[in-house]
Structures are given as C-alpha cells and as structure tokens.
Amino acid sequence: MDRQCRLRLGDRFVAGLWEQSPIGPMCDVMWARSDGERVLLVPTPEIGRFVSAVYRFDRVAQVSMDWAWSGRRLHLTAGALELDLHTKATWGFP
After folding, report:
1. Is residue 18 part of a domain?
2. H or E element, residue 48
3. Which of 2, 21, 40, 83 has its CA 20 to 30 Å from the CA of residue 15?
4. What is the residue range of 34's domain?
5. Cβ-Cβ contacts under 8 Å for 70 (sequence gap 6 or more)
6. In-domain check, residue 46
7. pLDDT of residue 38
C-alpha cells in the first residue's frame, strides 16, 4: 500500500455528499491524516477546485469515486479507500 492509502489510528474522514451544488451533484472526501496532512479526494479537477476554494488542503488527489446512501447506511469508495458507515436512526439527506 502506498503512502496515500496507509491508514493509522487517529485518521479522520468527512464525506461531502451534495445532491445540489453550483456545479451539480457531487461527492468528495476530506481525509485528515494522523500526521496532520489534509487530503481532499475528488473524482474530477472541477470538484477539487470548487471545494478547495472554500476549505484548505495540503493535497488534492483525483480518484475514482462511487457512493450509495440508503438513509441509514453510506457506502463510499474513493480510490483505494472504502468507507461503510451505519447509523441507528434514519437520517435525512440535506
């Protein structure tokens, strides 16, 4: 596994799922690595520019991305990263 995909205790992830945005529906992942580096994972350069205009990142990586949201479960792949999150209650998608 290369440096980009090596996870450690203390890594944090924020998945941005946008049904509507100025550039259309999109998804992105902010990865705050345990060493302090903030990496933005995006499927296109356009999404990277849009999100980076609002938030600061040390690095932007373009990766293949796919996600599914059921109201209680989010399954997201972003390159070699795979997140599978479950909730006890149903959440509305904002």
Report:
1. yes
2. helix 45-52
3. 2
4. 3-82
5. none
6. yes
7. 96
Per the CB < 8 A criterion, the answer to whether 48 and 54 are in contact is: no
pLDDT at 57 > cutoff 50: yes
Residue 93 lies in a domain: no
HSE of 20 in the Cβ direction (CA atoms, 13 Å)?
2
The greatest distance separating any two alpha carbons of the chain, rounded to the nearest whole angstrom, comes to 36
pLDDT at 40: 97
Please, which residues bridge with residue 42 across strands? 62
pTM (global) more than 0.85: no
Domain count, the chain: 1
Confidence band for 1, pLDDT divided at 50, 70 and 90? very low
Mean pLDDT of the chain: 86
